[in-house]
Amino acid sequence: MKKIELLAPAGNMESLKAAVRGGADAIYLGGRSFGARAFAGNFNNEEIQEAIDYCHLRNVKVYITVNTLIADEELSDFIEYVEFLYKIGGDALIVQDIGAITLIKKYFPEMEIHASTQMTNNTSDDIIFLKNLGVKRVVMSREIPYTQIKAIQEKTQIEMEAFVHGALCISYSGKCLFSAMNGGRSANRGMCAQPCRMKYEYIGLEEPTGEYLLSPKDLNTILEIDKIIESNIHSLKIEGRMKRPEYVFLVTNHYRKAIDSYIKKESLDKKDMYKDLYKVFNRDFTSGYILGDNGTEIINSNYQKPIGTKLGEVISYNKKTKKLKLKLLDDLHKGDGLSTGEFVGRVLKNNEVLTKGFKGDVIELDSLKKYIPGEIIYKTSDFLFMEDLNSRISLEKKVPIDVKVEIRLNEKPKIVIRDYNERQLEKEMDLIVEKARNKPLDEFTVTTQISKTGNSPFYIEKISVILDRDINLPIKSLNSLRREAISEFENLIINSYKRISSNTINYVGNNFSNENIPKKNIAKTKIVSKPKLSVKITKNEHLDFLENINVSRIYISDRKLYDLAIENDKFKDKIWFSMPSVITEKNHKYINDLMNSLESNMMFSSNGMITKMKEKNSIGDYHLNLYNSISHNYFHDLGIRTTASLEQIYGNEFSIPENVDKTMMEIPIYIRPQLMITEYCPFKNSEGKCKKNKCEIENVNLKNEKNELFYFKNIINCRLSISSQNPKSLDIKHFRNLVKMGYESFRIELFNESRNEFLEILSYYGFDIKED
């Protein structure tokens, strides 16, 4: 069978070595720029080169994350950084930005590209689009079950990668604007504020819930990893670039054993491994969407931080003596960390001072905290377990080499080293072998000395010695031959991955934002006398609002409202159907049937729709995350209009790509963005089926600790969007500047606004209320 790659995370050099020693086939890491984990330790350029060399010497690949959205003014630095990674031998780049992909393929066509999960890779159409773009591998969305992965892989014949362990996002990756719109920190730019881990309450839902209503459990698939392997997946990915080395080592090592046992068809009891994984980091575990856990059990509403393993049940707490009495549910040792934030000091049993206690014991601990009888205390760190883990992490990984040594009379001694990739080095020593005067050199001595590989990354799997009789070679010379040969062989391996760029790239004064843009796609700047207005409507009465409005396009996502609007001759030619923001393979037939039944033009938000839209009048919506001129112009060259990034318009610093055809780009000026797109719904049961006879989610609101309200909407097949009660609106100064710059199309999206509120919005921006 094909090799199954185990891909492990590294946030720093210590974690990288832990991953390699744990058995990873490949490592993914980020530099100090352009990575989606800006708050991980990350690597500077010198450290990246060290990491790549270290891994390559041990037959481990390195993939570097450049999976953020890239602004025009960053493109020059981005390409220079990619050139650096290309030259030092990075095995692949993990990328989110379409413009970035096109630039990499232009300047470094041999560089392997993996499409980040931030590109929301859900369908065979998505994957075929990326494959045609030059992508070698796609990282599937965490929401896609292994059965769909298998079906998609059979259709597309491309390498696929899926997360099998670690933190989950409640929203589809790449479709989350919650942090950017409500926290000022963009998840698409590597600075997620993790709003999903904050406290919320449901308004309109009577069922008892916890506080962390959007906080998923951590993914753990080790018990059923065989099913994922059998889905034709190429790479099993562990999340955790912000995790400690102990976590990285243990998770990697356990999945290594599980994969190897599957390949070798050996039995393996994974239950103890599953329990071990609780000891390094967990928010409780779920088998995730990938294995069909798509109900309410995927959320841990009581905890958003690691909880560890159950240690004991509180019997009593004595305020005077500050003694906590516990019945132990697990073994305990001095130095263990507790969920209370304390560490275990002495352990008291029957007034005897001990250093440990055992499951079933009733013991006392010194504690300054106050406890309630029946409360469960968790062990968040296991002293003995971590000691053992750290001793295992310290064991360096070595790779096999074959060695041939030839020592002949009156010739120079020679050594030949060959590795697993058939790389070979021949090394001769600059001296002539002489006849022995006393004790001759024997084969055992040669074998013993040459096999001493010391701190090198190699061990000798096979050694052959060709040795003339009655000859002499000093042990010192033999050792020198071995050391020099191994050192040169290390350099041979390292240099075999290095590349020379065939391009002469001019970085001075070049921001790269006009690369590959046909002149027809760059409109001359002009002052627009009458900006064009588009309106997205959600209710029947919104059609009445538009009776006396000069509107260019009307966007509708509801089929019933669409059918009503399309019958109105006045609006018929202006109607654009807005497709769901997220489409999965199971929606494929529904979407195709829908497109075939529609008469209108379309708005879409997924990469897989691009080829379908070439023959239609269409616009890509803001969830395509087009952040630079190259990305926008890619679509414009296909005749597809685009929408400006909401993160650029409503982020901390207003910016917008300028090197585009401004007549092809639309700018939302009043909008309640879909902050999240999620498969989770509080009305689902443990099997992922609705508890209600009909959908009631739109009667429920979500409230955060600032008393801000958020709305749910069922967008397709119980897939929900979450939007804020508070709309985003563009400052009039920015609006007027955009008009002066030549942008001519602007969008207003209505939710529950009254007619008067709508008219006030139009008046604020100066749009005509009566038709010409």
TrEMBL record:
Q: Which residues form the Peptidase U32 collagenase domain?
A: 377-493
InterPro entries attached to this UniProt entry: Pept_U32_collagenase (IPR020988), Peptidase_U32 (IPR001539), RNA/ubiquinone_mod_enzymes (IPR051454)
Asked whether the keyword Hydrolase is assigned, the reply is: yes
What residue ranges carry the coiled-coil annotation? none
In the record, what terms sit under GO molecular function? peptidase activity
Key words, A-Z: Hydrolase, Protease
Pfam family membership, one: Peptidase_U32
Q: Its Enzyme Commission number?
A: 3.4.-.-
- Broad enzyme group: hydrolase
**Which GO biological process categories is it annotated with?**
proteolysis
Q: Which PANTHER family does UniProt cross-reference here?
A: 23S RRNA 5-HYDROXYCYTIDINE C2501 SYNTHASE, PEPTIDASE U32 FAMILY
Q: What is this protein called?
A: Protease
